[in-house]
Amino acid sequence: MYKSLRTNLPKEIMELPGFPHKGPEDKSYVAANEMLKYLEDYADHFDLKKHIKFHHHVKNISPLEGDRWLVTAINLQDNITETSEFDGVIVCIGNYSNPVIPEVPGIEKFRGMKIHSHDYRDSSVFKDMSTVVIGCGPSGLDISFDIAKVAGKVYLSHHNQRVKNMKCPPNMVQKVDIQEVVENGVLFKDGSYEQVDSILYCTGYTYKYPFLSSECGIRVENNNVKWLFKHFVNIEHPTMYFIGIPTNTTGFWMFDLQVRCAKTFLEGKAKLPSKEEMLEDTRRDVESRLASGLRPKELHMMGRRSMEYYDSLSSLSGLDSVPPVVLQIYFDGFDRFMCDFSHFREDKYKLLDKDHYMVQFPNEVEPIMKKQEIASH
User: Fold this and answer.
1) What does the record give as EC number (predicted)?
2) What is the predicted pLDDT for the residue at 26?
């Protein structure tokens, strides 16, 4: 987490059902410490901490007969290894711990500073520097704008056409992909050259599960976790579930629905399809995504498929789906993110009911009421 980090989604859709944010209504985009406080308040409100073993590091998970699990963990306080059996495993380790460092020709020659956004904490490190930022996803944009406040020059290297016309600070220049790195600078694929003091990778993360034995049947290929039914059920051992793998969607609501689905399946209140049916459904999903233009490493992206995904989980489990208005705010917020990055966090949202919400834009006297346009099947 870096010092200036604020959410890039409104807090109104970054909450768990039944526990709204208690913060001030005069802002929708909040700081990281405010989100942490929300999660701590949630745990306290529902008295969850008494059910959690803190200070334990899971070293190995292996399947047993009957789709039970053997879990080995180290108690970090006394360094004692503990092994226990469980009826189910729910993996919730997040997606932002294992940074991707791309292979860039000549990078080993570079004499300046090189870091990944995973290790970025404060823009002051880049004061008066000339810096190239590789990648322009949400973190790449956010950090580039943050660094530009103190840096001499920021070069944002990417190939995202949607960002091409974005208004940037005067000392920030968009560049094409890098051709080669030399001792004191970077040569770009358009033939231009810039002398730089530092390189900052904003190149994303990969999925890793070093604690899963090979018998678990899970492998990661090209950033695609195989094989998962509906992106969260281990097809080989369907009492293991992975929470939060899909990207480009409303995270908190997805986490909640996936966990409730897993609980429903583990309790036997709903039944999963057969292994063959789950494999066939997954095959069709992969083919559809590739046909739509997604690259193999993007197969867990949801985007406009989000409502269809949530409805499929609802149909399987008998649980309520995510309210469409939540996704409508997500997509509207993303559009504002793309068209006015410098000011989108000044927008203020308010959920009115399952179909309506209001948004107050900067410099607008009156808020605008909107109705969700996304249909739930």
Assistant:
1) 1.-.-.-
2) 86
Please provide the CATH number assigned to the domain covering 107-201. Answer: 3.50.50.60
d(CA 329, CA 351): 9
Q: How far is CA 272 from the centre of its chain?
A: 26
Whether the per-residue pLDDT at 271 is higher than 60: the answer is yes
Interacting residues of 218 by C-beta distance below 8 A, sequence separation 6+: 209, 212, 225, 226, 228, 234, 236, 240
Strand order in the sheet with 130-134: 113-116, 198-201, 130-134, 153-157, 172-175
- Tens of pLDDT, residue by residue over 132-158, are 999 999 999 999 999 999 999 999 999
**Inter-residue contact 174 to 88 (CB < 8 Å):** no
Every domain of the chain with CATH number 3.50.50.60 lies at 53-97+206-322, 107-201
Order of all β-strands in the sheet with 68-75: 56-64, 68-75, 80-86
Q: How far is the C-alpha of 354 from the C-alpha of 192, rounded, in Å?
A: 51
SS3 (DSSP) at 73 = strand
CB 203 within 8 A of CB 100: yes
Q: Quote the crossing angle between the two packed helices 306-317 and 324-339, to the nearest 10°.
A: 160
Q: Which sign does the torsion angle of CA 46, 52, 57, 63 carry? A: negative
The overall average pLDDT reported for the chain is: 95
Cα separation, 318 vs 269, whole angstroms: 9
Given the candidates 3.50.50.60, 3.40.190.10, 3.90.180.10, 1.10.510.10, the CATH classification of the domain at 53-97+206-322 is 3.50.50.60
Site of tokens 């066939």: 280
The conformational region for residue 230 under phi > 0 = left, psi -120 to 50 = alpha, else beta, is left
Q: Which two tokens stand for residue 123?
A: 């823009």
Nearest to 303 by CA among 374, 356, 370: 374
Q: Which two tokens stand for residue 312?
A: 């499929």
